[in-house]
Amino acid sequence: MMTTHPNPALTSPQPFTSRTSRRLLSLALLTLGLGAVACAGADDTSPNALVVSIDSVGGVPHVLNSGTPVRWSLDSTVVIHDAGGEPFGRVTGVVGDWKGGVYVADAIALRVYRFAPDGSYLGSLGGKGSGPGEFRSLEGLAWVAGKLASLDAGNGRITLLSSDGEDPPVSIKWQALTGELTLEQTRPGEAYAPVAVPSAQQGRKDTKYLRLIGTGAPDTLPDYGAEVSSSAAVTCVSPGQIASFSIPFAPRPYSARAPGNGTVVGSTGAYRLALLDAAGDTVRVMSRDEPPVPVSDAEWADAEARWTRFREQNRGADCDVSSITRPPAMPAFRGTLFDDRGRLWVEAVTTDGFRLDVFDSTGVLVAEFPAPPRDRSVAMTVRTGRLFWTAADSLGVQTVHSARVVEQAAPPDSVASGS
To answer: For the domain with range 50-224+251-290+331-408, which CATH number is right: 3.40.630.10, 1.20.1560.10, 2.120.10.30, 3.40.50.300?
Structure first.
């Protein structure tokens, strides 16, 4: 593993004018863990109160959150077990409307199911085929121009359906990528779809993101996320085959789309995220000061057992390493999302499982609460104060959930400013 040492030039107070320089500055600071240190005294706040320290590096604000914010909770949970008596096949997307209604994309049924706010089944949209509003594959679900958008790699298009099925479907030509496909909802009316584009290197394709904001031709956003580090995966080569093993708990580069053609980037090895604008310039860096969560002996024993099975299945292959190394800690987080108020939600890793942290548009931590157990293959979404997610039992049977987020205002003296 390559070790990077701090470069004094990275902390220069002079503003950066080069887009590349500012992006590299952000990624370097994310890797090195440089940031402001809170220095509020004991008289300023209680031991558990939130302390927010804001520093500026290269003209970019760095917001460090320490302590504990106000705690929210979930209430009035609705659980949907099936669609009018039919079990879900494979749920790939769940969203809600402004009234609390629920919409579920099912890749096996090739339909979008509609449910009332109380979970009552209302009907479905779509079906198998290549005609207008039909699907040959169905991945993800998001709101675009007041319509339900979904990815249809089988028909090479993105389909937009009206929520009641009354309006004619709209199709946007789309070239699918291989691997995991999903739509990223960043705010009501705006979503992003991955697309393969020719690379400067012959024979390769790069990833960009289509910004969907209407029924017309979408614009594109480069993927500013880094490629997976070689220390996070093992590649084994044998005649006619290349196999890859993803090392459990290893830190990985992270990127997700943000409102207005923005991007959130970071490394799962540290609770530190940077917000980039459409040009790739760093707008803000936000972090939370928390102790690392160790990888337990039982968790690592399971990881090694999976590695052993992988080697047995690829016996005789030439692997770039002969053994895997136990990471010093669990990943700090495993995902992010934006709600319809532009707030960033981070799914953080804790000793008790997962927690949802909510940041406002300035990078200040406003709340936290335990994350519900969920099927991580299906994105969570938030709209009009409700959280929508999918869970799966030990047999892989999926259920869809909707719950009201009970927001609590922070007491006036619960947040202190660090220096």
So the answer is: 2.120.10.30
